[in-house]
């Protein structure tokens, strides 16, 4: 008989928490998971999945127009936000059900309550019950940051964007990261007038500069407006419900909705970390070692709350490695090298490995190959939008150290190519592969 109620108590049933619970239970552990909102976490409920479905929905605006050039008689089509929104939310409900089934079939006890740590082995639930566990896993994710600004309460974050009553006529999106650019693409395609307001002059920090510049150029061409180096002063709500953003300098911007996409901070507030001496780093993330163990021996943390790489597949891997390490007698760490990522903007972009600037800093001499082309489909559609593929190669070893692209289906193509970059293949090995013609991806083996 164990001295504890559970072998493992997981706080947060998101990407990392669900995977860790399921795998630990499969290894024979007695597991409980507390979730204060909905099973599935950010990715399934208000992140990757509903966002991608909105992106699919939004893309029809261009597809329907292009279809005419391909011979289809497309009448002027109307769009109903509520139909898309409700269908997306119904799909989210379905997926939440699947996640619950998985936990149930692994005999994981699901507790729909907020949990707070009260000691190295104890947790208090919002309903009042206190439980003990040999190990505790913190997988509470991250939470949108809203700037401290007069009138900020009139704005929304991505959390609320999925539930809007209507697609806004005029939306201002504050921020320059992937969430800002993705929602800018969505709302623009759905007919909103979109302005991105950014504190600096840089969009999508961390992605290759040429690729980012191309997105800015295409977005501007499509009609998305940008205001860079903008310092907001306050948001005013007018009597008719519309908003007006005032800046420290420059003209105010009137709009109907303001959406903050100004970063996500580790979700640790009120979690009781001090009761178990769980330490945070200087950015407020839970400090962990390579096995995801915190400064308290019996407490581990995975996913966004540790702010290593805020991506779903990373949280899932961390949760899986934790469960194998602690309950599967198979100590495993996660390899963070060459993790591919994408921005599902219009058009999407994706990258893996080092950007040109990073490679120059790290390796000294690099060779860069680019292909700047108009995809065949865009040519026939009369769409003046060019794709850009870029390969960064270590000049000494000829190994491909980075691959970056913007254009239709870039994330789909990059996922496959990332295997080759991760495997350390050389430019020559790319070139040795015969092109698959006609495709956009063939550019990868034809770079000169
Ligand atoms: C709009 C948006 C789009 C995104 N798109 C992508 C994408 O395209 N690709 C990608 O890889 N990633 C994307 N992400 C990021 C991705 O969603 C996260 O990296 C991932 O969900 C992190 O998983 P996690 O397990 O760390 O936390 P989460 O999935 O956030 O789960 C944490 C859970 O803990 C619960 N919780 C918190 N505190 C408590 C408590 N005290 N008690 C009980 N429960 C608690 C929360 O309710 C939540 O359900 C996106 C995020 C957002 C916001």
Automatic annotation (TrEMBL):
<feature type="binding site">
    <location>
        <begin position="175"/>
        <end position="182"/>
    </location>
    <ligand>
        <name>NAD(+)</name>
    </ligand>
</feature>
<dbReference type="GO" id="GO:0005829">
    <property type="term" value="C:cytosol"/>
</dbReference>
<dbReference type="InterPro" id="IPR004099">
    <property type="entry name" value="Pyr_nucl-diS_OxRdtase_dimer"/>
</dbReference>
<comment type="subunit">
    <text>Homodimer.</text>
</comment>
<dbReference type="GO" id="GO:0034599">
    <property type="term" value="P:cellular response to oxidative stress"/>
</dbReference>
<comment type="similarity">
    <text>Belongs to the class-I pyridine nucleotide-disulfide oxidoreductase family.</text>
</comment>
<dbReference type="InterPro" id="IPR036188">
    <property type="entry name" value="FAD/NAD-bd_sf"/>
</dbReference>
<dbReference type="Pfam" id="PF07992">
    <property type="entry name" value="Pyr_redox_2"/>
</dbReference>
<feature type="disulfide bond" description="Redox-active">
    <location>
        <begin position="43"/>
        <end position="48"/>
    </location>
</feature>
<keyword id="KW-0520">NAD</keyword>
<dbReference type="GO" id="GO:0050661">
    <property type="term" value="F:NADP binding"/>
</dbReference>
<dbReference type="GO" id="GO:0004362">
    <property type="term" value="F:glutathione-disulfide reductase (NADPH) activity"/>
</dbReference>
<keyword id="KW-0676">Redox-active center</keyword>
<dbReference type="Pfam" id="PF02852">
    <property type="entry name" value="Pyr_redox_dim"/>
</dbReference>
<feature type="binding site">
    <location>
        <position position="304"/>
    </location>
    <ligand>
        <name>FAD</name>
    </ligand>
</feature>
<keyword id="KW-0547">Nucleotide-binding</keyword>
<feature type="domain" description="Pyridine nucleotide-disulphide oxidoreductase dimerisation">
    <location>
        <begin position="339"/>
        <end position="445"/>
    </location>
</feature>
<dbReference type="InterPro" id="IPR006324">
    <property type="entry name" value="GSHR"/>
</dbReference>
<keyword id="KW-0521">NADP</keyword>
<dbReference type="GO" id="GO:0006749">
    <property type="term" value="P:glutathione metabolic process"/>
</dbReference>
<feature type="domain" description="FAD/NAD(P)-binding">
    <location>
        <begin position="6"/>
        <end position="319"/>
    </location>
</feature>
<dbReference type="InterPro" id="IPR001100">
    <property type="entry name" value="Pyr_nuc-diS_OxRdtase"/>
</dbReference>
<dbReference type="InterPro" id="IPR012999">
    <property type="entry name" value="Pyr_OxRdtase_I_AS"/>
</dbReference>
<dbReference type="GO" id="GO:0050660">
    <property type="term" value="F:flavin adenine dinucleotide binding"/>
</dbReference>
<comment type="function">
    <text>Catalyzes the reduction of glutathione disulfide (GSSG) to reduced glutathione (GSH).</text>
</comment>
<dbReference type="GO" id="GO:0045454">
    <property type="term" value="P:cell redox homeostasis"/>
</dbReference>
<dbReference type="InterPro" id="IPR046952">
    <property type="entry name" value="GSHR/TRXR-like"/>
</dbReference>
<keyword id="KW-0560">Oxidoreductase</keyword>
<keyword id="KW-1015">Disulfide bond</keyword>
<dbReference type="InterPro" id="IPR023753">
    <property type="entry name" value="FAD/NAD-binding_dom"/>
</dbReference>
<keyword id="KW-0285">Flavoprotein</keyword>
<feature type="binding site">
    <location>
        <position position="52"/>
    </location>
    <ligand>
        <name>FAD</name>
    </ligand>
</feature>
<protein>
    <recommendedName>
        <fullName>Glutathione reductase</fullName>
        <ecNumber>1.8.1.7</ecNumber>
    </recommendedName>
</protein>
<feature type="binding site">
    <location>
        <position position="263"/>
    </location>
    <ligand>
        <name>NAD(+)</name>
    </ligand>
</feature>
<dbReference type="InterPro" id="IPR016156">
    <property type="entry name" value="FAD/NAD-linked_Rdtase_dimer_sf"/>
</dbReference>
<feature type="active site" description="Proton acceptor">
    <location>
        <position position="437"/>
    </location>
</feature>
<keyword id="KW-0274">FAD</keyword>
């Amino acid at each position: 008989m164990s001295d504890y109620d559970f072998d493992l108590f997981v706080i947060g049933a998101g990407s990392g928490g669900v995977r860790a619970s399921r795998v630990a239970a499969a290894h024979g552990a007695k597991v409980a998971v507390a979730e204060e909102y909905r099973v599935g976490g950010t990715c399934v409920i208000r992140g990757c999945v509903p966002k991608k479905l909105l992106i699919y929905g939004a893309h029809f605006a261009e597809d329907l127009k292009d279809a005419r050039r391909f011979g289809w008689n497309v009448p002027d089509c109307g769009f109903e936000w509520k139909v898309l929104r409700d269908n997306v939310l119904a799909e989210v409900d379905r997926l939440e059900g699947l996640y619950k089934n998985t936990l149930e079939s692994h005999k994981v006890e699901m507790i729909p309550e907020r949990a707070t740590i009260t000691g190295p082995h104890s947790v208090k639930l919002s309903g009042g019950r206190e439980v003990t566990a040999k190990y505790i896993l913190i997988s509470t994710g991250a939470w949108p940051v809203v700037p401290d600004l007069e009138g900020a309460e009139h704005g929304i974050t991505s959390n609320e964007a999925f539930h809007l009553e209507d697609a806004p006529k005029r939306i201002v999106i504050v921020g320059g990261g992937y969430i800002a650019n993705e929602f800018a693409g969505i709302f623009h395609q759905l007919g909103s007038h979109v302005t991105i307001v950014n504190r600096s002059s840089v969009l999508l920090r961390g992605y290759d500069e040429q690729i980012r510049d191309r997105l800015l150029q295409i977005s501007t061409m499509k009609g998305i407006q940008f205001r860079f180096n903008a310092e907001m002063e306050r948001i005013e709500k007018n009597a008719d419900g519309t908003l007006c953003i005032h800046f420290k300098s420059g003209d105010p911007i009137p709009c109907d909705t303001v959406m903050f996409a100004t970063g996500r901070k580790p979700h640790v507030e009120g979690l009781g970390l001090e009761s178990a001496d769980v330490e945070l780093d200087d950015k407020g993330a839970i400090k962990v070692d390579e096995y995801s163990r915190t400064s308290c021996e019996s407490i581990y943390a995975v996913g966004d709350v540790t702010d290593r790489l805020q991506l779903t597949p990373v949280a899932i891997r961390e949760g899986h490695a934790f469960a194998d390490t602690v309950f599967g007698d198979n100590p495993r760490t996660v390899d963070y090298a060459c993790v591919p990522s994408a921005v599902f903007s219009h058009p999407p972009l994706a990258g893996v490995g080092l950007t040109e600037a990073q490679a120059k800093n790290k390796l000294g001499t690099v060779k860069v190959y680019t292909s700047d082309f108009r995809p065949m489909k865009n040519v026939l559609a009369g769409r003046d939008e060019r794709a850009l593929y870029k390969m960064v190669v270590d000049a000494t070893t000829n190994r491909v150290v980075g691959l970056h692209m913007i254009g239709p289906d870039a994330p789909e193509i990059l996922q496959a190519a990332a295997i080759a970059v991760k495997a350390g293949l050389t430019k020559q090995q790319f070139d040795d592969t015969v092109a698959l013609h006609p495709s956009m991806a063939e550019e990868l083996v034809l770079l000169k």
